[in-house]
Fold this sequence. Notes:
The protein is mainly beta. The protein has one domain: CATH 2.40.50.140. The chain has one helix at about 55-65, and strands at about 5-10, 15-20, 25-40, 45-55, 70-80, 90, 100-110.
Amino acid sequence: MWHKITLIGNLGREPEMRYTPSGQAVTSFNVAVDESYTGNDGQRVKKTMWVRVSAWGKQAESCNQYLHKGSKVLVEGSLTADPSTGGPRIWNRQDGTPGASFEVRASTVRFLSPRGEGEGAVEGEEPSAPASEEDIPF
């Protein structure tokens, strides 16, 4: 059996990097994935789902260096299930209420934000020049 998940969203806060006891880099960050649709009443509905992502090795170091709060990313990877339930990881918040989170172990992280915006970008990518009024077709 095999599964793969693809997410496109924005980082909700700065990535956090740490090292395992064996010296391997791990960077964790949260990605907000939005969905919007028109409800039965004709009103626009927007839902946001937060997904925790972990990147490993050299990719973890790149994510820590180039990603920032608000950066747009594409993440491909696999869901990490809670070993005891097979579902999302269950935990208790500081106020004692239960919480659940989806977690993804990244196999690929692509930086989608242009460098000019102070966000992460793919190495070697140049930001596009701003359009002048003459370039706008209307």
